[in-house]
Design goal:
Shape: elongated
Radius of gyration: 47 Å
Distance between the termini: 90 Å
Helix content: 40-55%
Largest sheet: 5 strands, antiparallel
Strand content: 15-25%
Oligomer: single chain
Number of domains: 4
Length: 699
């Protein structure tokens, strides 16, 4: 039963109680009227007997009069309407004829007692209506006697209490449910008590909290059991207020007393269950604050341990990234250098296979690190201007050769109405699209792959929603595998004979990156026909006249030879590879082994830029860069561009490098295209600075 229903039924009980009191008053009034009517003269044309008869018939409660044998002498209209009989069907018959069968003995026992005592109050009988339904009635009445004091007749008023009894039964059942519920609660001590404090109920948790068994507690005063003496008077005042208002007490933290005298800190709440006509019952619910505080401390400790484990995991991954990427960079570098030498066909094939295997290892390492960053909530997004043409063009540049090799077409399409320049994290968007296109190429043997970008309505001003679609004519995805393709390390094809390699991280990372950027990802697929992946992303619009908007689609200037580059790298193999790569690009390279040597070289010679490894002995790249930015020590050289070259690839690294004063950032293993782009950006910056200096001199 709901709390609202209980309150409604309690209200009905209060109404019934009021009517019962009115019934008792009416009995006394009718009796007085009847006595006054006996032999009294008429007043105002209407005798007292006539007035009594009118009152008798119009009374709202059922009235009956019985003779000494229990036969009906009179009934009023309310009686007849309640039971559905006519007056002729009632008068002269015995009261017992109208009782339910099981109530006959009850009448035979109580009627003689009624005649002997002279009155009854609240005696109950169950009567049967003419239609066979039953009504439970409470009778109040007195005996009418003659002048000699002999029995004359009964005067009784009855009240239909069928609904009241139903409500009482419902309340009792509800209370019993509460008691059963409380009995099964091991973490909350529940006590039921009377308004005078006498305990009526004591659950198992109370036994545990306070050390008293239920047998010891029930019947004793709750103050004497658990309340310190200084709280007794305040408690009694609170109980009186609850009884008067029917409202519960607000929860309070208290220090109570156990049987052994020990103190127990609890959060205590008191409520009242008041049924009209019954003594109110009060309930106290106590929660052990010490246990709760222990649980909170345990939770905080577990949280701290989890955070420490996450931090340790991040540090481990960062260190592993460095330890794996550093030799991998050297391996790839040597392979690329070897590929540039005079090789026969078989040797070149071996080198290409080694490079492809190293590239796969690099991709797997990057995927694991990205997944770790996303799961830890430490993936940092940037919001920079980029062009859709450049983004889609990079897909063609990267996957075009693979498509040609597999004899697959690679189609692209950009809706003409889309803005050419957008704001977003181009690197992460490219990562998502590369994953999708890479999968499409991997699982397609004939036909082709199509990449499209079109606009969707956006509710936000200054924003456009772009829908990227990657559609293939590949093998498709079985229906029973759709639920796992976005789960890390899970693949649709998991058998030992599977044809396609991979760790199963690409789609997981892509979906999480899309969600991190505020977008959504969906898939349509039909096995044997192909799949279509949809990525919807909210992207910003740059301000009119901004640099990228003004030069949308303009390529970077080509890298010119002759840059004076200082390379700081402690690993000999990596130092050799970077030196050879830069020299092949036509640049002048000076190589040193640590940050201290880099600062010495900068003091001694002039350079256009520094390629600075981050993790080096004696003085690492961050410390060396901070020292370089000290203008008092290095003068104009303090502004020289510094590109971080690092095997670190965890969340926050880029921000840390920039905060230390580094200009740009590339990750190991060094990709020649990535390095060229970074050098071109520095070259463009140097050109802009020289142009500005020239304008100042001219002015």
């Amino acid at each position: 039963m709901s709390q609202k229903a209980v309150q409604r039924e309690k209200g009905q009980l209060r109404d019934l109680e009021g009517e019962l009191r009115a019934a008792r008053d009416l009995v006394a009034r009718l009796e007085a009227e009847l006595e006054a009517a006996s032999g009294a003269p008429a007043v105002g044309g209407q005798s007292d007997e006539e007035r009594f008869r009118q009152l008798f018939e119009e009374a709202p409660l059922g009235y009956q009069s019985l003779d000494a044998d229990g036969n009906f002498l009179a009934v009023n209209q309310a009686w007849l309407e309640t039971l559905g009989y006519s007056r002729e069907e009632v008068l002269g018959r015995n009261f017992g004829d109208f009782l339910a069968d099981e109530w006959g003995d009850h009448f035979k026992e109580n009627f003689p007692r009624f005649k002997a005592l002279g009155e009854i109050l609240g005696v109950e009988f169950e009567l049967v209506r003419k239609d066979g339904t039953r009504v439970l009635a409470a009778f109040n009445g007195k005996i009418g006697r003659d002048a000699d004091g002999r029995f004359k007749q009964t005067h009784c008023i009855f009240h239909d209490i069928t609904e009241r009894r139903r409500v009482e039964q419902a309340v009792r059942q509800n209370e019993e449910r509460f008691r059963t519920l409380f009995a099964g609660i091991s973490s909350v001590a529940v006590q039921g008590y009377r308004p005078d404090g006498t305990v009526r109920y004591w659950n198992a948790a109370s036994e545990k909290f306070y050390g008293y068994s239920a047998e010891e507690a029930v019947g004793r005063n709750i103050c004497d059991l658990v309340l310190p003496a200084h709280l007794h008077e305040a408690f009694r005042a609170d109980v009186r207020r609850m009884v008067e208002t029917g409202q519960p007490l607000p929860s309070a933290e208290l220090v109570l007393r156990r049987k052994d005298g020990a103190e127990v800190e609890v959060l205590s709440s008191h409520a009242i269950v008041a049924v009209p006509g019954c003594e109110p019952e009060l309930f106290c619910l106590d929660v052990d604050l010490a246990a709760r505080k222990r649980a909170e401390e345990a939770m905080l400790s577990a949280k701290a341990q989890a955070e420490e484990a996450s931090r340790a995991k991040s540090e481990f991954l960062a260190n592993m990234s460095h330890e794996i990427r550093t030799p991998l960079n050297g391996l790839l570098g040597m392979m690329h250098l070897l590929k540039g030498t005079a090789l026969d066909g078989e040797q070149r094939q071996y080198v290409d296979m080694a490079i492809r295997s190293s590239d796969r290892l690099t991709e797997l390492l990057s995927d694991i690190l990205d997944l770790s960053r996303v799961e830890a909530g430490r993936m940092e997004l940037v919001r920079e201007e980029f062009t859709l043409q450049g983004l889609i063009g990079s897909i063609v540049e990267t996957f075009g050769p693979l498509g040609s090799e597999k004899r697959l077409s690679l189609g692209i399409g950009i809706e003409p109405d889309l803005p050419p320049v957008l704001l977003g994290d181009e690197v992460r968007i490219r990562q998502v699209l590369f994953n999708l296109v890479g999968n499409a190429m991997k699982f397609t043997e004939q036909g082709g792959v199509v990449v499209e970008a079109c606009g969707l309505p956006s509710p936000c001003p200054g924003e456009v929603r772009v829908l990227f679609t990657v559609r293939d004519s590949g093998i498709g995805i079985p229906d029973d595998k759709l639920g796992i393709i976005f789960t890390g390390f899970m693949q649709a094809d998991t058998g030992k004979s599977r044809r396609h390699q991979g760790a199963g991280l690409g789609l997981t990372i892509s979906k999480r990156l899309v969600e991190l950027m505020g977008g959504t990802m969906a898939v349509e697929t039909e096995q044997g026909v192909g799949s279509a992946f949809y990525v919807s992303l909210p992207l910003g619009l740059p301000e009119a006249g901004s640099g990228a908007a003004a030069s949308a689609g303009a390529p970077l200037s080509e890298l010119r030879p002759g840059l004076r580059i200082l390379l700081a790298e402690d690993e000999r193999m990596n130092r050799l590879f970077a030196t050879r790569l830069l020299e092949k690009l036509g640049q002048e390279v000076t190589a040193v082994e640590n940050g201290r040597e880099a600062l010495q070289a900068l003091r001694a010679d002039d350079f256009d830029l520094v390629l600075m490894d981050v993790q080096m002995p004696e003085l690492d790249g961050l410390e060396a860069t901070r020292a370089l930015r000290d203008r008092t020590a290095f003068g104009p050289k303090a502004d020289i561009p510094v590109i971080a070259v690092t095997a670190h690839a965890m969340a926050g690294d880029r921000e840390e490098f920039l905060a230390a004063g580094m200009t740009d950032y590339i990750a190991k293993p060094i990709d020649s295209a990535q390095l060229v782009h970074a050098l071109c950006r520095v070259q463009a910056s140097l050109d802009a600075g020289r142009a500005a200096d020239g304008r100042e001199r001219d002015s």
